Amino acid sequence: MSDGASVYLCTSNDEVIDLVSRGQGVFGIAVGKVLREVETTLVELDSQPSDPSDELALRRLSRKVS
After folding, report:
1. Minimal CA–CA distance to 20: which of 28, 32, 11?
2. Burial (0-12, 13-18, 19+ Cβ within 10 Å), 19
3. Do 28 and 21 contact (CB within 8 A), yes or no?
4. Confidence at residue 66, expressed as pLDDT on a 0 to 100 scale
5. CA-to-CA distance for 35 and 40, rounded, in angstroms?
6. What's this model's pTM, rounded to 2 decimal places?
7. Domain span at 25
8. What pLDDT, in 10s, does the model give residues 14-62?
9. Is residue 6 domain-resident?
10. I need a labelling partner for 21 at 20 to 30 A (CA). Which of 33, 52, 59, 64 fits?
């Protein structure tokens, strides 16, 4: 959650209530599902064969060999 100046990780209802009770507007977004989707996609991408003409793929390959 954010109050416009700082970002807070609220893991319980009490933490959300405490933040909201300060009287300022608060913006909240649940990122747990998005985080899991990104992690899954990264794992899938890492398991796919890379294109050796891709500069980033070449760097990854050189790190694995070292």
Report:
1. 28
2. middle
3. no
4. 59
5. 9
6. 0.37
7. 13-65
8. 988 888 887 766 667 777 888 888 888 888 877 766 666 778 877 887 8
9. no
10. 33
